[in-house]
Design goal:
The complex is a heterodimer of chains A (150) and B (130). Chain A contains 3 helices and 6 strands. With 150 residues, chain A is α+β, with helices and mostly antiparallel strands. The longest helix of chain B is centred in the last third of the chain and has 33 residues. Chain B starts with a helix and ends with a helix. The chains are: A alpha+beta (150), B mainly alpha (130). The interface between A and B is large, with 42 and 41 residues.
Chain lengths: 150, 130
């Protein structure tokens, strides 16, 4: 067991929190983007909302071996396993003047809901702050341990 | 004669426990949004009881896994799998984890103070009261 395991766990939480905030920013920035990708017919497709998938870090072979040898292997941090796309349908809006409108005069807009993004952003901010608190706690404990024998 | 007695060894075990607990709490907080993550906790193990149950065995090769591994630690990591506070199967209670963090920090500092006090008394004995 490394003495910095707790700090590493908090850091992984900070990294994941920051990535979630980046993804939310990207979603909000592209909320009106009708030409993000092209499909197999060569036509433009709107931006799809992105989501971050996280998993505990103790899913590796090494940690399972540790658990098999010794019940006291401690859990550690979080890791981002994937960034997936939200498969909900695009929003349709009647706007015949728009260059990307179809024959009926509708354009497809990204499936980004600014409300959902703001809720995600708040949740990411809060968990970021919680990780900072636990990082500071671990740090002050280690500094206190250095005082042994002084 | 054992100069340091049992006190320092007990404090040492308690410090091990406190830092393991800090690690578990940190891991719980970092996984607060992970789906299906179950909170971990650290519990004191009955060290004396455990020591008497050690398997008496010889290793024929030093590469073999030792038999007395578990006795060395004074704590046990447990997973709380029977609750769910969130629709995604996660059961980390942030308020509880923050309280545990604060409690554990105070406990750790108290142990460090105690271990320093013990060393201070030994120092005073070594110096003959001066």
């Amino acid at each position: 067991m490394s003495i910095f395991n707790a700090i590493n766990a908090s850091t992984s939480g900070l990294t994941a929190g920051r990535l979630r905030m980046d993804v939310v920013s990207s979603n909000i920035a592209n909320a009106q983007n009708t030409r993000a990708t092209t499909n197999e017919n060569g036509e433009y497709e709107p931006y799809r909302r992105k989501l971050v998938v996280t998993a505990p870090q103790d899913n590796s072979f090494q940690s399972f071996l540790h658990k098999a040898q010794n019940a006291n292997s401690n859990p550690s941090g979080v890791e981002v396993t994937n960034i997936i796309e939200d498969e909900t349908p695009f929003k349709l809006e009647y706007n015949p003047e728009h260059p990307d409108a179809n024959e009926a005069g509708f354009i497809e807009l990204p499936n980004v809901d600014p409300l959902k993004e703001m809720v995600d952003l708040m949740s990411a901010t809060r968990s970021y702050e919680a990780n900072i608190t636990s990082l500071n706690a671990s740090k002050s404990m280690l500094m206190k341990a250095l005082e042994i024998g002084k | 004669m054992d100069l340091f007695g049992g006190t320092i060894r007990t404090l040492e075990g308690s410090l091990d426990f406190a830092s393991a607990k800090n690690q578990a709490v940190s891991s719980n907080i970092s996984n607060i949004d992970t789906p299906n993550y179950k909170a971990k906790d650290v519990a004191f193990k009955d060290v004396l009881n455990n020591a008497s149950q050690t398997i008496e065995a010889n290793r024929t090769d030093e590469k073999h896994i030792p038999f007395d591994q578990e006795v060395q630690s004074s704590y046990q990591v447990i997973t709380k799998g029977n609750t769910s506070y969130n629709h995604n199967g996660n059961n980390v209670d942030l308020d509880k984890e923050m309280a545990e963090l604060a409690k554990n920090q105070i406990y750790y500092n108290a142990l460090i103070d105690r271990i320093n006090g013990k060393f201070g008394s030994l120092q005073s004995v070594v110096r003959g009261g001066n």
